[in-house]
Specification:
7-stranded mixed beta sheet; 3-stranded antiparallel beta sheet; homodimer; Nucleoside Triphosphate Pyrophosphohydrolase; 273 residues; 24% helix; DNA-binding
DNA sequence: CCAAAAGTGTTACGATTACACCCATGG
DNA sequence: CCATGGGTGTAATCGTAACACTTTTGG
């Protein structure tokens, strides 16, 4: 039997809340989605992009034909093994770094790590045959990038909505699901959303973030009250001017801490009835 | 620079609810711990052992001078490095096993693994210098042994109350705390207590288990209602005869499942006010 | 003024905690 | 018949969900 070396790698599911063109759910509940859906894949209005390019609070409202969704960063394999499938960023652990350091370093090849607001260990995948060739033990990580960041990406790399993952390499799909579940759970009892939000934001922006990350609808009012009571968010005192549609100007908030913290050990958001 | 090989090991915190002689809360926190802490865990009354030796529901009431507590299995190092400190069972990962398998195999040297009712991954410790010599990346596990089990132990191995750990090797103390926190958290929203309870049991026994594992007092009445509503426990229909002190015979229950399961995603036990 | 967006207040509900009271048994 | 657990029922509490109503702004 040939000698097989064992290497240790990290794999990071980097999440960001983004807008995607409405997906065409072919075959099934097709028509409704189609109408505004298919046509506009690339066309995120220049204005929107410009507005988000800046550092702060660009109220990303859902335009028609767009959905705000949790996205994960993937790159497409140009070579075998698993050519053409999509993979999580990551790579081999070096001799003198710990896993956290390694995950951050590997990510630097794909995104500007200065944009990375949070990184945490999620799970270890150790099936001896999880990938062909040498054995690779994978430590899975969860990473977060804020709403307003628009990092440059290498040509093989793209954001994909987690609700509609492409053909994934090896067990990378499982990794994404694990990480997403972890994120959703932690939204309830920690301030982890700081990693997905921009420096300052309005409550409706924050609501969109929570909706996207949790996968269900959240009430703005209650979100505000809960997060304020727990001192997770703090009003800056400023207000944001409304869009051209009018409306009352929104109060601007920021996260009290920029590091993860358990804010209420016994808290649980629940999906709507 | 000398070449340093990297190996992957597992470390398992095996927990069992056990009775210990009451710690003497003497003058300060220093002396008391030393006295009964290190020395005494052997002197459990013969009767208690006999009663618990059998397979089912021996209502372990706290006698005077005894406390029911969560215990962790440790062995004492006879050799350097860290001679005389206490370690978690574990060891090196083999080429053709995954981490779960490895953890179970390593444990077989310390306890009868047939007694092991649950085993799950908790964390990875990867600091390049966490132990002297070759680099060891440690995957930490949580293991459970039921109340009634009284496994044979090797001479260097002993149960220690988690509230009073001895001098621990390397980062093993941190591992124990991590695992214990994980256990406490999962008691709220999963049926993980099946791993700590015997096949069948009365509510007051189960209460003791929850108290020991959570570290705070739990109301028997409410525990029964909550676990019944969630269908975590099922009445067997039998009753246990009361002790010589008299009292109404207790209903006997069993856990509905003998595998971990999320029973109520949004549940949280809270400590008493 | 009217529509749109944001914020306030109130109620409803679900789950858990706390506790008083009734039941069954041994001595 | 009484002390000792065990079990049942009910009230109190806490947090979040739901929603109607008021405020502020643009057209």
């Amino acid at each position: 039997m040939a000698h097989r070396s064992t290497i240790h790698e990290t794999l990071t599911a980097v999440f960001q809340v983004r807008r995607f063109p409405e997906t065409v759910r072919a075959g099934e509940s097709a028509r409704d989605r189609e109408k505004s859906g298919t046509g506009a894949p690339i066309s995120r209005s220049g204005r929107a992009i410009a507005a988000r390019g800046r550092g702060n609070d660009p109220l990303p409202r859902c335009g028609p034909g767009e959905r705000t969704e949790l996205a994960v960063l993937l790159w497409e394999r140009a070579l075998d093994p698993a050519k053409g499938t999509w993979s999580l960023p990551g790579g081999r652990l070096r001799e003198n770094e710990d896993l956290d350091t390694s995950a951050a370093r590997q990510l630097a090849e794909k995104v500007d790590v200065r944009e990375l607001t949070h990184l945490e260990q999620v799970w270890v995948f150790s099936d001896p045959d999880r990938v062909p060739g040498d054995r690779r033990i994978a430590s899975a990580y969860l990473g977060l990038v804020p709403l307003t960041a628009e990092p440059e990406l290498p040509p093989d790399t793209r954001w994909h909505p987690v609700s509609d993952l492409p053909d994934m390499s090896f067990d990378h799909g499982t990794v994404v699901r694990h990480a997403r579940n972890r994120l959703a759970a932690k939204l309830s009892y920690t301030n982890i959303a700081f990693g997905l939000a921009s420096d300052t934001f309005t409550m409706s922006t924050l609501r969109e973030i929570y909706c996207a990350a949790l996968g269900y609808d959240v009430d703005t009012t209650n979100l505000q009250r809960v997060l304020t009571r727990r001192k997770v968010i703090t009003p800056t005192g400023e207000t944001a001017s409304p869009g051209r549609a009018g409306g009352r100007p929104a109060a601007v908030y920021r996260f009290t801490d920029s590091e993860i913290r358990v804010t209420d050990e016994f808290a649980t958001f629940r999906p709507p009835a």
